[in-house]
Amino acid sequence: MGRHRVLLGFTLSLILCLTAIPASAIEVIEVWRGESFGWPDCVSVNPTDGSCWVGADNTVFHLAQDGTELRRVGGFDLGSPHPLSVSVNPTDGSCWLADHWHDEVVVLAEDGAELLRVGGVFGPASAAVNPADSSCWVADMGNGEVVHLGQDGTELVRVGGFTYPGATSVNPTDGSCWVSEHGEGQVVAHLAEDGTVLWWGTSFNYPVCVSVNPIDGSCWVADMDNDQVVHLAQDGTELWRGGGFNYPRAVSVNPADGSCWVADGTREWGSMVGAVVHLAEDGTELWRGEDFWDPLGVSVNPTDGSCWVPDTGNGQVVHLAIPGWQPSIFYDVPWYFWAFDEVGACYEADIVGGYTPTRYRPTLPVSRDQMAVYISRALAGGDENVPDFTGTPTFPDVPGGFWALKYVEYAVSQNVVAGYLDGTYHPEYPVTRDQMAVYVARSICDPTGEDGLADYTPADPRNFPDVASDFWSYKHVEYCVENGVVAGYLDGLYHPEYVVTRDQMAVYVARAFGLLP
Questions:
Q1: pLDDT-derived band of residue 25, with 50, 70 and 90 as boundaries?
Q2: In the prediction, which pLDDT does 424 show?
Q3: With 50 as the cut, is the pLDDT of residue 10 above it?
Q4: Residue 221, Cβ density class (10 Å: 0-12 exposed, 13-18 middle, ≥19 buried)
Q5: Percent of the chain topping pLDDT 70
Q6: Could you give the CA distance from residue 94 to residue 66 in angstroms, rounded to a whole number?
Q7: 264, exposed or middle or buried, with CB in 10 Å at 0-12, 13-18, 19+?
Q8: What letter would DSSP give residue 508?
Q9: In angstroms, rounded to a whole number, what is the distance separating the alpha carbons of residues 139 and 155?
Q10: How far apart are CA 56 and CA 41, in angstroms?
Q11: How many Å separate Cα 46 from the centre of its chain?
Q12: pTM of the prediction?
């Protein structure tokens, strides 16, 4: 199930409270910084080999992952006044670039050989290649149009209605393209593969860069003159808008964790300021580096989470990395989240899933029907091993056709769950920490159920003052403690009355069933 991940080394073995820890600033290190690039203003990383293409003045550089210069090709003009872009095709290592002043789009092979030169454009400002079919969307700024070119340079679609389209970003999942327009219209547009306008937004002021996330179709926008960065849903709904920037020039989303890197420049020429900012998927600032001077571009590598930046004012190119970074199965459970390992382990074991492909919703409470699902999948060794139920339902409120019927009945068959005195199961009731201990203890003892705990005697003295020896689930709580499943809070209490959330549940199940190394 899902992506293979190397589990992080910082599991919260000493955590006494099983609640989510707010993300703090992450560490970002400078892997490499190269000089003598003149005026570098655009970068594009190849996730296949980690190399990077850089546009600087009239030259394109191809750098290895460690910064070694692989090749350089001259004869172009990629310079100001426009922050332009080069775009690498990871399928063959080629690079598309917009030669603004020569009114051409050029394609270079991985070795720097010229493969293609396309005219019919006037002052092209950006190129965005689609790795799914090797086509390319071009912002034809001088003509006020966006052009979709085939792999061989054939014009497939031309869309007008723009004034000065400045940047493009293609979604390889559906072939659509996002466009930022920083002329009179000040718009961001979403175009279908055939050029149909899917969305047209005007609540921007000089949007200079867009970056689409192919996982969920959302798009990040550098809204430069508003000093903001905006995150839009696939349908154009505004998900987040954040300030605190000086002059955001470029954005690059990492589809592996939903985060976004921002190149934040300067409004005043000669002012030696600038920053690179790393935002979480929800807009939370994770890191800010200010050792830059008016960076005009940014490009993230989704395979390792690193980022390339043209430090334009300093004439340098910088490669940044995040120690310990890992791709996220769910954007709301990133690699620095306290229960990242446990949620991932449960996902890989086919015990949990998300509400959407990118959302786990770790803070939602767990109900009794959901707990039966988690426990049954864990006991059976994954969802596909939980048998279908065809008999008479045990509980009247878990009837035939109920979504969790087979899981509740399997848990009953394993002597893990029972109903209330009125004969019902109450699947909608939230699970508290005392109840969770009962579910888990009955599941991991041998045999499962109360019979497996019949000869168990808790250690003396008891662990928690709020779980007395005559407390109804005293034995189950102590059994879970002795088996390394649960611990108490910092106040020394267990708090059996607290409702269990989905992140906490994943921790209990992962520990109880030995899913962590």
A1: low
A2: 98
A3: no
A4: buried
A5: 93
A6: 19
A7: buried
A8: H
A9: 13
A10: 6
A11: 18
A12: 0.89
Find residue 97's DSSP bridge partners. Answer: 86, 106
For 340, the 3-state DSSP assignment is helix
Asked if residues 138 and 126 have their Cβ atoms less than 8 Å apart, the reply is yes
Question: Any idea which residue has 């950006």 for tokens?
Answer: 126
- Look up residue 51 and give its amino acid: S
Q: For residue 55, what are the contacts with CB-CB under 8 A and spacing of at least 6? A: 40, 41, 42, 43, 76, 78, 84, 85, 86, 97
Please count the other Cβ atoms lying within 10 Å of the Cβ belonging to residue 432: 18
User: Residue 288 is encoded by which pair of tokens?
Assistant: 């800010």
DSSP H helices in 457-501: 474-482
Structure confidence by residue, pLDDT tens digits, 444-472: 999 999 999 999 999 888 899 999 999 99
Among 491, 445, 496, 440, CA closest to 467: 496
Residue with the two structure tokens 């100001």 = 80
Query: Per residue in 201-236, pLDDT tens?
Result: 999 999 999 999 999 999 999 999 999 999 999 999
Residue with tokens 């009731």: 429
State the Cα–Cα distance between residues 119 and 412, nearest whole angstrom: 71
Spatial distance between the Cα atoms of 357 and 68, rounded to a whole number of angstroms: 38
Q: How many CA atoms lie within 13 A of 89 on its CB side?
A: 23
Amino acid making up residue 329: I
